[in-house]
Amino acid sequence: MGERRSAGRAQRPRANGKVKMASTATATAPAKAAATDLPLLEMFSVMLLARRLDERAWVLHRQGKIAFHISGMGHEATQVGIAYAMRRGEDWLVPYYRDLALMLALGLTPLEFMLGVYGKRGEPSSGARQMPSHFGLRRANVVSTSAPVATQIPHAAGIGLAIKLKGDERVVVTTIGEGSTSQGEWYEGLNWAAVHKLPVVCVVENNVYAISEPQDRQMAVPNVADRAAAFGMPGVVVDGNDVLAVQRVMQQAVDRARRGEGPTLVEAKTYRPVPHSSDDDDRSYRSREEVEQWKKRDPLLLFRATLQSMGVLSEAAEQAAEAKAAAKVEEAVHGADAAPYPDPAVEGLGPVYVEEIHHA
Amino acid sequence: MGERRSAGRAQRPRANGKVKMASTATATAPAKAAATDLPLLEMFSVMLLARRLDERAWVLHRQGKIAFHISGMGHEATQVGIAYAMRRGEDWLVPYYRDLALMLALGLTPLEFMLGVYGKRGEPSSGARQMPSHFGLRRANVVSTSAPVATQIPHAAGIGLAIKLKGDERVVVTTIGEGSTSQGEWYEGLNWAAVHKLPVVCVVENNVYAISEPQDRQMAVPNVADRAAAFGMPGVVVDGNDVLAVQRVMQQAVDRARRGEGPTLVEAKTYRPVPHSSDDDDRSYRSREEVEQWKKRDPLLLFRATLQSMGVLSEAAEQAAEAKAAAKVEEAVHGADAAPYPDPAVEGLGPVYVEEIHHA
Amino acid sequence: MPEMTMVEAIRLAMDEELARDERVFIVGEDVGRRGGVFRATQGLFAKYGEKRVIDSPLAELSIVGVGIGAALYGLRPICEIQFADFIHPAFNQIVSEAAKMCYRSGGEWTVPLVIRAPYGGGIGGGLYHSQSLEAFFAHVPGLKVVIPSTPQDARGLLKSAVRDPNPVLFFEPKKGYRLIRGPVTEDEGLVPIGPAHVTREGSDLSLFAYGMMHHYALQAAEIVSGEGIRAEVVDLRTLYPPDRATIVASVRKTGKALIVHEDNLTGGYGAEIAAILADEAFTDLDAPVRRLCGPDIPAVPFSHPLQDWFMPNPNKIAQAMRELAAY
Amino acid sequence: MPEMTMVEAIRLAMDEELARDERVFIVGEDVGRRGGVFRATQGLFAKYGEKRVIDSPLAELSIVGVGIGAALYGLRPICEIQFADFIHPAFNQIVSEAAKMCYRSGGEWTVPLVIRAPYGGGIGGGLYHSQSLEAFFAHVPGLKVVIPSTPQDARGLLKSAVRDPNPVLFFEPKKGYRLIRGPVTEDEGLVPIGPAHVTREGSDLSLFAYGMMHHYALQAAEIVSGEGIRAEVVDLRTLYPPDRATIVASVRKTGKALIVHEDNLTGGYGAEIAAILADEAFTDLDAPVRRLCGPDIPAVPFSHPLQDWFMPNPNKIAQAMRELAAY
Ligand SMILES: Cc1ncc(C[n+]2csc(CCOP(=O)(O)OP(=O)(O)O)c2C)c(N)n1
Ligand SMILES: Cc1ncc(C[n+]2csc(CCOP(=O)(O)OP(=O)(O)O)c2C)c(N)n1
Ligand SMILES: [Mg+2]
Ligand SMILES: [Mg+2]
After folding, report:
1. Beta pairing partners, B197
2. What pLDDT is attached to residue A356?
3. B312: left (phi over 0), alpha (psi -120 to 50) or beta
C-alpha cells in the first residue's frame, strides 16, 4: 500500500533534510487492480508534458528569454493523481505555484503556461500581471492564487462552506507545500473545514524543503499528516511519487468529502529535484548526492515502469507521447514568443474594481 | 487521577456547550499524598481572596462605581495550581485577562488590582492606560498583555527561546482561553516551542465558552489537548477545578521544561459561572440550570472539602481566612477609591518610546 | 418615517439583505444566538437560521478568508469583526487577497464581500477597543472603505455594500450605535458608495469629518455659528476611493479646511485630504490646512481623564475653527 | 574608505552588531545556511552558529512574535521578513504588540526589535514581490520606520536600529541591493535614527524621496540642472517619526515641493509630507504640492511594460520637476 494513516510508522526527516522514502514495492500491486478504470496513458502523457514544458522553461531562463521560472518538477505524480480524482467541471481547485501538471490535467494549455512565463498578453491566470505559475483558471474552477503562502487554505474552506450552504455535490481541493503548513492561515483554514465538516481536501505536497529549510525546521512531527489530529480529521500519508497511490488516496478523500463526511488532510511525500526557483541556488543547503538519489524515484520513471509492467505502455506508445509533448512544447514556445506584451492602458490600469460580476 | 493524556477518553462538549466533567473521585487520593509539601492553607487563602475581590468588583460595577470588570471566577483552582508549580522570581508568565488568582499568587496586591478596576494612577500593569485585568507585572516577571487574544503565545515562545539561548534554568508559562486556540497565533507560537524544544508550558483554561460560543464552534476535537499532536508535544487534560490536580500536572510540565525536554500543552477543564464580562448577558446562550450545575463543582468548595477531609482546614482557620480576605478587599477598595486619576500630561502623553532600557 | 438608532438601522439593512438575496449570509464571532456583542445581528439567527447567521471560530483571519472563499463561489458574505481593533490578524487576507483578487485575475475572480467592524473611542474601551483604523485601509486599491454617520446612511450604505461586487470595509462608529438616532426612510433607501455629503452649507471654512466626528463637527459648527462663523460641514462617508471633487469644491468655496478624525494625526486619513487640497485647491486656500486628530500615541487610553484628553470633541473643534476663521 | 554595495553594507552592519553584543541574533526564513534569499546574512551562520542565526518556520507572525518575546526577555533580535510583501501576517504582532508594548505598560516593558524587510519594485517581482509598505507603518506610534538609500546610511542606520530600545522597521530598497555602491567609512559609522538628510542643495524646488527613489531624484535633479532648475533633494531616511523640521525648512527655502514614492499615491506616505507642508509651510508655498507616485492599482504588475509604466523613474521625475518649476 502506498498510503497509510498518519499514526502509522513515522517517516522522520533527518536533520540534513533527507527523508527515507516509504517503499512502494507493495504499492503498485493493489494500485494496478484499481487503476483499470483510469486513463493510464492519458495520465502518463500529462505527466510527461508537464515535465517537458518545465524543462523547457528552465532552458528558456538559462537563455535569458524569460525572467523567472518556478518549477513543478518531481511533483507530477502527486498532481496528476490529484487531478484524476476530481470531477472536471464540477469540483474546485485552489492550487499553489508548483501545480503545473495539475493545471495541465485540468485544462490549462501549454501555450497559456508559456504566455505566463513570458509575461505576455492573454495569460489566463492574471493577464501577465502576476509572476508565472501563480495559477488561476476560471473556466476550470481554479481560483486565482497569490504569492503569500497559505492564504489559499481559508479560501478553500470558504468555498467548501459555500458548497455546503448551497447543497451542491462538489468538492474543493487545495494544495500547499509542507513548509507553508507552519502558517496560521493553514491551521485556521483547516480548522474551519473540520468544525463545519466541509467538503475540502487539503493536499500537502511535501518535497522536504521550504527553499533551504528542511522539514524539521518547520515542525517537530515526522508527518504533516500527523497534524490532522489537531483538527479531528483524517490524515493520510501517501507516496507522492506514485501517481496511482495518490489517485487512490485522493479518490477516497474526495468521495468522503462528497458524501458530506468532512475534510481530509493528504500528505504526498515527494521531492524537489531542482532549485526552489530560477532565483535559487540549492548548493548551499543540500548535497548533490542527495539530489541524485531522487532520480531513482523520479515519478515519471516509476510510472513508466508500472505501465510497462502492466503492458500498457509500449515503446512505440511512449515515443509517440514524447513526440506529442515535444510538439506541444515547441508550439507553445513559438506562440508565446510571438505574442504581444500587455498594454499599460489595458492590463495595467485595471480592473481594480468591477461594476458587475459576470460569473458565479 | 485528575489528569490524563489527551488520547484518553473523550470529554466531548455537547452542542449546548455542556461538558461532562471528569470525575475527580480518584483525583484527591494521590493528590493528598503529593500535596504535603505544598502550603495548602496559603493556596486556599489566595483562591479565597481572588474570589472575594472578584465578587466585589461585580458589586462595584453594579453600583456604577467602576466601568468594567472581567472576571476570573471559577478559574481559581486552575490558576493557583499553576502558580504553585512555578519558581517565583525565576519563571516567567505571559497571562491573560482571567488570571486574577494567578496574579495574586505571584504577588499582585489587592490594591493594585482595584486601582486597575477603578482606572486609577499607580495601577502597575499599564498605569490605567489599559482596561482592567490586562495584566502585567515587571517585578514578578509577568509580561504585559493586550486584548487581542492569542498574541501572547508567540511571546511566550520567544521568551522560551531567549531562556534557551541564554542557558537560563527558567520556564515560561502562558495561559489562554480555549476559544482563543482557534487563532493562528496560538498555533504558530506552540509550533515554535515544539520545533525548538523550548521551556514553555501553555495552559488552556477551558471554561467551555468563548463569550457565547461553546467549544464545538471552535474545534472538532473533544479536548484542546488533542491539538498537541499537531506539534509533537505532550497534551494533558486536567480537572481545572481541582487545584491539587492542576498543581501536580503543572509541576510535571514545568519540571520537564526545565530539564530541557520541551513544551507541554495543559488543558484545565473548568467553567465560567458568570457572564463573559460586565458587558455580557449570558442568558441568550446558556440556561440557568447549566450555570447552577457549576456550584457543585465550585473549585473553592471542592478545595475546602479536600482540606477539611485532610484535617488541614478547621472552621476557625476558614473564618480567619475569610476575615483576612474581607479586610484586604475593604482596604483595597478604599485605597483605590481615594487614589488620584492619571494625568494626561503624564500617563497620557507617553512613554511612546524610551531612550534607554532600564531592565533586562 | 420611523426613527431608529444606528445599530437598529444596521440590523435592518442586514435583515433586508438577508431577505432579498439568499446568497447573503453573516459570519462572525457571537453573531448567532448572542446576536453580536453590540446586538447588531440580534434576532437574525432566530429568523434566518444557522446557515445564514454563522458563529465563527474566534479567528479573524479565517472569518475574512472563509468569507473570501464563499464570495468566490458566488455567495455574499457579511463578515463581522467584533471590534475593529481585532481586524489586524485578517490584514493579510484583506490586503493581499480580497483587495488584489480582481486586479490580479483581470476581473476573472472578484470578491463581493462586506466586512463590518465597530470602531472608535470614547466608550471606555482602552487601547484595544477604541481604535480607528481607516488609514490602514483607505490606501488599498481594490477595497472600498465606508463609514456612515447617520442611521439613514448606515442602512443605505450597508445595503449598497452588500450589493457591491467589490470588497467593502464598513466601519461603524460604535459610540453612535445607540447615541445616534435619526429617521430612516421606508423606501429601499440605497445610498451610493462614493459621494461625500455636504451636510451643512457654509462659506467661511470647510470641516471634513466622518463617523462620530461628523456629529461633533456639526455641533461645533452650530456653536461657532453664533459667533458669525459660517462653516460648511462635509461628511466624507466613503473614504476610499475618496470623493476628490466634493472635497475640492467645498474648499474652492470656503478657502479654508479643517479635518477632524479620532485616529492619530501623523499618517492618518486626514493627511490625504490635506494633500489633495494642497495640490488641487492650492490657489483657493486662504489659510493653512488644519487637522484636529488624536495625538500620536498608540491608541485611546482607558482611564477617563486620559480618554477625554485623547478624543476630539465639539469644543475642541469649535476652538480650532475659531483659530482658522481668524487666520 | 571601502566601497561596497547596499547588501554588503547591511551584512556588515549585522556582522558588527553580532560581534559587539551577544544579545543580538538573527531570525527569519532561510537566513541560516542559505544566507537569506538576497544573501544579506551570507556567512553569518558559519561565523556565529545556529544560536545566533536562526532559520525560522515559514511563518511571519511568529517570526515577529517570537522576536518580541525574546526582546522582552532582554535579547536583541533582528527579524528578517523575506520580502516586505509577506509582512502582512505579522501586522497584528507589529501594530498591536511591538508598537504598543512600551506605552501600554508605562515603559515597564519595551521591545528592542529590528524587523528588516526588502521592499520595492522594478525587479520583475510582480504584485507580491515588489510592494512598498511604509505607509501602513509610518502611522503607528511606538514604531520607528527607517529606509536607507546608501550603503553608508544602510550600515549606520541598521546599527542604530539594533541599538535602539524601541521596535524599528527597517525597509531595504532591494532593487538597490547590488545596484547601489558607495563608500562606507571605517569608523563606527552610526547614523542616528530621526534626521532626514539634504543630499543636494537647491533653491527652486524641494524633492522629497527615500530608498531607490532618492537615487532617481538625484538623477532627475541632475537632468534638470542643465536646464537651470536648481533642485534641493531630501533623503527622508527616517519616515516615522518624520523629521518635520528638515522638511519644512527645505520648503521655506524653495517654496515648492515634489514628493516621490513607489507606493500608491492615495493614502501613501507622501500625503503626510504634503499635509505637513500645507499646514506648517503654507505661507512659503509658491506652488501646489505635487506627488509623483505609483498609480492607484493594487501593486506593481509583473510583465515588463506594465512594471515600467508603474514605476517612477528619473525621466518622469524630471518632467514633474519642469512642470513644477514652471508653475
Ligand atoms: C507568507 C510568505 N512568506 C514567505 C514567502 C517566500 N517563499 C516563497 S515559497 C517559500 C517556501 C515554500 O516552501 P513549501 O511550503 O515547502 O513549498 P515548496 O516551495 O517546497 O513547494 C517561501 C519561504 C512567501 N511566498 N509567502
Ligand atoms: C483577536 C480578538 N478577537 C476577538 C476578541 C473579543 N473577545 C474577547 S474575549 C473573547 C472570547 C475568548 O474566549 P476564550 O478564549 O474561550 O477565553 P475565555 O474568555 O472564555 O476565558 C472574545 C471573542 C479579542 N479580544 N481578540
Ligand atoms: Mg516544500
Ligand atoms: Mg473560554
Report:
1. none
2. 84
3. alpha
Query: Looking at beta carbons, which residues of chain B come within 8 Å of D194?
Result: none
d(Cα D16, Cα C326) in Å, to the nearest integer? 56
| Of the candidates B300, B287, B285, B291, the residue with the CA atom closest to the CA atom of residue B273 | B291
CA distance C17 to C7: 15
Name the residue among A252, A234, A200, A253 with its Cα closest to residue A92. Answer: A200
DSSP character for D209?
E
- Give me the pLDDT at residue B36, please: 66
Q: What confidence tens digit (pLDDT) does each residue in D78-106 have?
A: 999 999 999 999 999 999 999 999 999 99
For residues D207 and D153, give the distance between their C-alpha atoms in angstroms, rounded to a whole number.
19
Q: Nearest to residue C229, comparing CAs of C237, C238, C221?
A: C221
Return the axis-axis angle of helices A110-118 and A315-338, rounded to nearest 10°.
40
Residue linked to cell 477609591? B337
Question: Which residues of chain C does B184 touch, with a Cβ-Cβ cutoff of 8 Å?
Answer: 59, 61-62, 89
Mean pLDDT (whole number) for B120-129: 97
Any atom of ligand 2 within 6 Å of the Cβ of B180: yes
Q: Please give the average per-residue pLDDT across B124-148, as a whole number.
A: 97
A92 lies within 8 A of chain C by CB: yes
Please choose, from the candidates B226, B268, B222, B229, the residue with its C-alpha nearest in 3D space to the C-alpha of residue B11.
B222
CB A291, CB A273: distance < 8 Å: yes
3-state helix, strand, coil in chain C (%, to 5): 40, 20, 40
pLDDT of res. B66: 96
| Tens digits of residue pLDDT in D108-134 | 999 999 999 999 999 999 999 999 999
Could you tell me what percent of chain A has a pLDDT over 70? 89
- Residue A70 grid coordinates: 518556478
Task: Please report the pLDDT score of residue D179 as a whole number.
Answer: 97
3-state SS class at C195: coil
Which amino acid is located at B148 in the chain?
P
Mean pLDDT, chain B, integer: 91
What are the residue ranges in chain C where pLDDT is below 70? none
Instruction: Assign 3-class secondary structure to A285-347.
Output: CCCHHHHHHHHHHCHHHHHHHHHHHHCCCCHHHHHHHHHHHHHHHHHHHHHHHHCCCCCHHHH
A225-234: pLDDT as tens digits: 999 999 999 9
Determine the pLDDT at residue D117. Answer: 98
The DSSP string of B84-108 is: TTS-TTTSEEE--TT-HHHHHHHT-
Q: Which of D95, D96, D297 sits opposite C103 (nearest CB)?
A: D297
C-alpha span between A203 and A135 (Å, rounded) = 16
B149 touches chain C (CB under 8 A): yes
Grid coordinates of B187: 498555533
| ipTM, interface predicted TM-score of the complex | 0.96
Partners of chain A (3+ Cβ pairs below 8 A): B, C, D
Pocket test for ligand 2, best of C62, C86, C116 (most atoms within 8 A of CB): C86
- Residue B10 has a CB neighbour count (10 Å cut-off) of 12
Q: Does A91 contact C at CB distance below 8 Å?
A: no
* Residue from A343, A353, A355, A356 to probe the interface with C (highest C Cβ count within 10 Å): A353
What is the separation of C-alpha D13 from the centre of its chain, rounded to a whole number of angstroms?
16
Interface of C with B (CB under 8 A): 29-30, 32-35, 37, 55-59, 61-62, 85-86, 88-89, 124-129, 295-298, 301-306, 309-310
Any residues with CB less than 8 A from the CB of A50 and at least 6 apart, and which?
A: A72, A76, A79, A80, A100, A101, A104
- pLDDT of D222-252, one tens digit each? 999 999 999 999 999 999 999 999 999 999 9
| pLDDT tier at A2, thresholds 50, 70, 90 | very low
